[in-house]
């Protein structure tokens, strides 16, 4: 009789990958966080993180990540729901996913041209009689471009959850006299909640550490934890403080994953 146990030999590449590319980088970041810019062992980096400057920076990062995630969800959910009702849903889904294949820098530079003082956005404003505006280097441009970049990552998990819902459950809800809103809130949304949680994870966590968009689109007027890490490592050369911020960023990511983690699931339209 064959054993169902997996041969440990086949798990060696997996364990090597985890050790080299997950555990080792985190250990190095944690190690460097205990040294100051002169290479002396210290806890000042952790004390400095709880100063008013870094606390405001952390709150600002969470605020922008929350706005980006919320707007992405408000756009992605009805889009994903509409996709499940279309005839060629896989084709339309592919059209939404394709922009995510384009390099981030290329998309950022494209929006620099679009939102520039003489770009298409301002040309449209001029055509309707409005004066040209400084759209670049504002909170609006930062959030708009961020939402555009993250939309596909929010749509995909929500679409997968909605597409797996058994249509018989929706028909049963309507046959029992439930309104469209009641069917949505009591049947559709609960069954697709894991897709929403997955979408929040893949948008909120990267949004906490954005730095390329903050530099190119927001002109460093928006400072996030990712921007602070970049400045500490590349500008001030204070690897200790940069590592300390990275340690807290990792902790925040773990907390977000725990809060939005799956506590149940759906199989063939049934709640586990």
> What is the 3D shape?
globular
From the alpha carbons, calculate the radius of gyration and give it in angstroms.
23 Å
Question: Any low-confidence stretches, pLDDT <50, length ≥5?
Answer: 265-272
Strand content: under 5%
CATH class equals: Mainly Alpha
Overall pLDDT, averaged?
89
Structural class call reads mainly alpha
Order of helices and strands: HHHHHHHHHHHHHEE
Order of neighbouring strands in the sheet with most strands: 1-2
For the termini, the CA-CA separation is 32 Å
Number of helices: 13
Keywords: Cell membrane, Membrane, Transmembrane, Transmembrane helix, Transport
InterPro entries: MetI-like, MetI-like_sf
Main location: membrane
Membrane topology: Multi-pass membrane protein
Structure description:
It is a single chain. This protein has 272 residues and is an all-alpha fold. It has one domain: Orthogonal Bundle (MetI-like fold). The protein contains 13 helices and two strands. It has helices spanning 12-32, 44-49, 52-85, 89-97, 104-115, 120-127, 139-163, 167-175, 180-191, 193-208, 212-216, 225-234, 239-259, and strands spanning 266-267, 270-271. The chain has a two-stranded antiparallel ribbon with strand order 1-2. A hairpin with a 2-residue loop joins β1 and β2 (270-271). α1 (12-32) crosses α13, α10 (193-208) packs antiparallel against α13 and α12 (225-234) runs antiparallel to α13. The protein is globular, with a radius of gyration of 23 Å. The two termini are 32 Å apart. The model is unreliable at 265-272 (pLDDT under 50).
């Amino acid at each position: 009789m064959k054993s169902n146990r997996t041969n440990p030999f086949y798990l060696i590449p997996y364990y090597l990958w985890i050790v080299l590319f997950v555990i080792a980088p985190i250990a190095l970041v944690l190690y460097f966080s205990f040294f100051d810019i002169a290479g002396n062992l210290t806890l000042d980096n952790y004390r400095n993180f709880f100063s008013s400057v870094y606390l405001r920076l952390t709150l600002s990062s969470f605020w922008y990540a929350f706005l980006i995630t919320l707007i992405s969800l408000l756009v992605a959910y009805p889009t994903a729901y509409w996709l499940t009702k279309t005839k060629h849903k896989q084709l339309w889904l592919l059209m939404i996913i394709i922009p995510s294949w384009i390099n981030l820098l290329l998309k950022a530079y494209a929006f620099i041209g679009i939102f520039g003082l003489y770009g298409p956005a301002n040309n449209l404003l001029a055509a309707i009689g409005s004066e040209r505006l400084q759209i670049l280097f504002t909170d609006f441009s930062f959030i708009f471009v961020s939402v555009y970049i993250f939309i596909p990552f929010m749509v995909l998990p929500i679409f997968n959850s909605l597409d797996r819902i058994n249509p018989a459950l929706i028909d049963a809800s309507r046959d029992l006299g439930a309104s469209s809103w009641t069917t949505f809130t009591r049947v559709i949304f609960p069954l697709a909640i894991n897709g929403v949680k997955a979408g929040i994870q893949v948008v909120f966590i990267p949004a906490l550490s954005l730095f390329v968009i903050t530099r190119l689109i927001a002109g460093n007027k928006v400072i996030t934890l990712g921007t602070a890490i970049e400045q500490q490592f590349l500008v001030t050369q204070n690897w200790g403080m940069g590592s300390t911020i990275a340690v807290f960023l990792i902790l925040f990511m773990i907390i977000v994953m725990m809060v939005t983690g799956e506590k149940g699931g759906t199989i063939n339209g049934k709640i586990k």
